[in-house]
Amino acid sequence: MVLTAFVMSLLSGAAAGTSTDLVFFPIDTLKTRLQAKGGFFQNGGYHGIYRGLGSAVVASAPSASLFFVTYDSMKVRVRPHVERVINSSGTRSPHSVDTIVHMIASSMGELAACLVRVPAEVIKQRTQVHSTNSSWQTFRTILKNENQEGIIRNLYRGWSTTIMREIPFTCIQFPLYEFMKKEWALYDNEVGHLKPWKGAICGSIAGGIAAATTTPLDFLKTRLMLNKDSIPIKSLIRNIYKEEGFKIFLVEYIQGQCGLVPAVPSSWVCMRQCILCFNRLRKRKLYCIDSMIKFL
Ligand SMILES: *[C@@H]1O[C@H](CO)[C@@H](O)[C@H](O)[C@H]1NC(C)=O
Ligand SMILES: *[C@@H]1O[C@H](CO)[C@@H](O)[C@H](O)[C@H]1NC(C)=O
């Protein structure tokens, strides 16, 4: 029975991942084009917004499953160690145990998911800013290893920046999510059985805050992945600063905050960012898994 529930939530996680990737794909394309060098219109504007969809679809379910399987098994394995440390430190708080276990397990889940997600993202983003090539053609171009850096290195371009983004993202999101759920449950007298839709709202807010704080890294990740040759992140920052000025960082940062600042929803960029925050959270399958498990 336990296994059935596991498989069920695994499948629903994968299905949720794939369907949200499909629905939000055009927004993702617009985001990539905004972040790319040269700006939005030079990188394709509104044309061909489904470019690169293939790589997203192929990678979606495996990366969601990898996340979920790792998260689920690590949660069980990490707990005794965390308990021991917390017990010996004298602070007997079951909440902090839960939070720390969540953070460690999901960081490991992210790491595992990145094995699939990073190559798919490299192919996807390059396809999104290319005017004619398909995901498959981009993949074949990478396989040709024209810059002599090696296929693996080219496929895993931006790996460390992606991890630098995913792990803080998770470590901000999870404790916030747990905290908001707890407070809401206390407030509405639903301790232990908070309604799934309320959990979803907590999840979107937590995801939004986490996304906003990690946006600069997302921008750098896109630039790294799109660059023809691999480049150290320091040089990348220096080049961007020299060629595009400090303004570009500011613009990127403000765009990242817009999901949180309802006072400036007038610009479509901000609208995009709001949806993106929501999308990012859904990608993590956080509340999907959470409510599926309750539902099963
Ligand atoms: C830590 O303490 C809790 C209760 O205080 C106990 O249930 C748990 O078994 C302890 N864990 C370890 C690893 O000592
Ligand atoms: C686009 O596809 C062509 C033909 O497969 C290939 O020669 C070219 O390098 C590709 N461009 C990119 C940027 O992938």
Report the order of strands and helices.
HHHHHHHHHHHH
Q: How many distinct folded domains?
A: 1
Distance between the termini: 10 Å
Number of strands: 0
* Largest sheet entry: none
CATH superfamily: Mitochondrial carrier domain
- Give the names of the bound compounds: 2-acetamido-2-deoxy-beta-D-glucopyranose
Q: Within the CATH hierarchy, at the fold level, what is the topology?
A: Mitochondrial carrier fold
GO cellular component, one term: membrane
Solcar repeats: 4-77, 97-183
Main location: membrane
Subcellular location: Membrane
Lay out the secondary structure.
Layout: H1 2-23, H2 25-35, H3 53-89, H4 94-128, H5 135-143, H6 151-155, H7 159-188, H8 196-226, H9 233-244, H10 247-257, H11 268-283, H12 286-295
Helix pairs in contact: 1-3, 1-12, 2-11, 3-4, 4-5, 4-7, 7-8, 8-10, 8-11, 8-12
The protein binds 2-acetamido-2-deoxy-beta-D-glucopyranose (2 copies).
One 2-acetamido-2-deoxy-beta-D-glucopyranose (NAG) is lined by residues 130, 133, 137-138, 140-141.
